[in-house]
Amino acid sequence: MSRVRLLALLDERAVDDIGQSLGLDRGQTLTAIQGLMPALAGAMATNAAKPGGLESLMTDGPGPIARFMADDHRRLESLLDRAAAGGRIEPALYEEFRAGLLRHIGLEEKILLPAVSRARGGLPLPLARQLRLDHGAIAAMLVPAPTPIGIERLRALLALHDALEEGSAGVYADCDQLLAAEAASLIRQLRDYPAVRTAKHHEGPVVERHIAQALALAGREQILPGPG
Q1: Which residues fall within 8 angstroms of residue 137, CB to CB, at 6 or more apart?
Q2: DSSP 3-state of 113
């Protein structure tokens, strides 16, 4: 594993955590980490064939992109839980969740998926099409005003969708593997991505029909839109 890839595994938060535990500032921490690189690289070369060797220790667990995106999943889940607590919907919290979820979709559509496609010579990830179809269905479900039934169905869709992205076999792990050399730059882009302005809610049979069509296209027919 190259020195660049090793450093890419550590995002700014991880570097700060290491520095705090050692009583070092960021510059001193980076210097200390870089000083260990030759020894780590040599150990990895020696232990590459061992299932429990140092290589597996360095690659086990989520990388910086996966951590960043999964943390945003948890933030959005918490917002939705608070917005729908006690069976009553708090409009301001729901709108914060709605805007945050649309922004999260933008992070994937505008930054991560194009970057991975470039890293693969223009070929999208095998799951990219499913993610985009899910995104369309999620966006459609955010059009009508929230209801308890609608929120439960949205949660069900998000659970199916997030399972494709998180974990060692998920899309975020693919991003960390393919984009290791530019992970720090991508994290900055993800953090700096602008907030999304949401449109007014719309209701009616046309909206419900569009939701049903989007779910069918995504192969998620088991999650049916409800009247509220």
Answers
A1: 157, 211, 214, 215, 217, 218, 220, 223
A2: helix
pLDDT at 127: 97
- Region of 23 (left: φ > 0; alpha: ψ -120 to 50; beta: rest) is left
pLDDT digits (tens, 9 = 90+) for 203-222: 999 999 999 999 999 999 99
In this prediction, residue 47 has a pLDDT band, given cuts at 50, 70 and 90, of very low
CB 172 within 8 A of CB 126: no
On the 0-12 / 13-18 / 19+ scale of CB atoms within 10 A, 221 is exposed
Token duo for residue 173: 């792990």
Per-residue DSSP letter, 182: G
Two structure tokens written together for 33: 């980490």
Q: Are 68 and 190 in contact (CB under 8 A)?
A: yes
- Rounded to whole angstroms, the Cα distance separating 219 from 116 reads 24
pLDDT in tens, 128-142: 999 999 999 999 999
